[in-house]
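Quick start: what a row looks like.
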Amino acid sequence: MKTVTQQICSNGFPMKQPPLSGSLKRYTSADMSSDRYDFSEHHQLIRTLLEAGKLEEVREEIRRQHDHAVSHYGESSPEHSFALFNLGEWHEAKGDYEAAETLLTQTLHIRQQTLGEQHPDTAKALGSLGGLFNKTGRYAEAIEKHRQALSLHEAALGKEHPDTAVSLNDLACSLLANGNSEEALTLFERAAAINEKLFGMSHYQTALCYTNAATLYWQQGYRDQALSILQHTLATTQNLLGNTHRRSCGMQLQLAVFLGENGQTTEAEHHFVQALSGLSQSLGDKHPDYALAQRNFAQFCFRNKRTNQALLLLHQAAAVLLETLGAEHEDTRKTIADLVMLSLMHMQDNEQ
């Protein structure tokens, strides 16, 4: 009988092999069992493709890495944990959060047993689980995992290491989602300062941390400064990752929201449309991130008296969120509440 992980690995990746391109051609099935196969190099390539959002291109490479790790190193090996980590993040990127949690939890367990509780790779597994919990609305658990990861990274790598900055930013995101904006801003600014010192302003991690800080500057009333930061970080991220990368689209969506709230409706709509188009290309229109973008656009349409369009967007978003996140998730509940409220208002308007 297959284990849960084996079932996920089998079910999550179609058997049909897509055409390989570029450096991926080096890792054919024949190469996997030969002396030419370099596990570490292949892992770095997979990480690069995952970060770039090339989910279809990377899926068979992750399967090969997983099969090679199990056959050559065993299911309890650190190598297997790296393959499971990639599988987990692939499923998370596809919106399959249940499978992702199973895989990332197993990753953490293996690393704790083989690498130790204090190892930086154990910290990365904690951080990845924390990010998943944050996406699924389990903020207290997310904060706990991110605090553990940050503590481990600071102890093992130092307070100004890039991985420490990632942990600071991740913890701040969970704190912000849980309503602790004061501590979140302190951590965003600290992470941004580390990345700026290490990499400069034209680096994705620097742009990400300043984007997150800008969200809080906006809430504090510093609108001009927040818009200026977002326009700069969006241009930087699009230049580095491309216009349709999910991270670029996320920043563009945030800029669209701010512009809409600032009364710059023409510019706002342009960015909403561009962000939705990019997310559709990179993630598909059945992904929860796409649905949340639709909800944001629906709120913009409603404020601009385009009620029918807003209702259509909310109907589509609610259906996707119910399917992917479930009825109890905070984002699902908020979207359905918006839909119900807007539907009632629309009915009242028609009766008058």
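That is the whole record. DSSP finds 17 helices and no strands in the chain. Residues 1-115 form a domain with the Serine Threonine Protein Phosphatase 5, Tetratricopeptide repeat fold (CATH 1.25.40).
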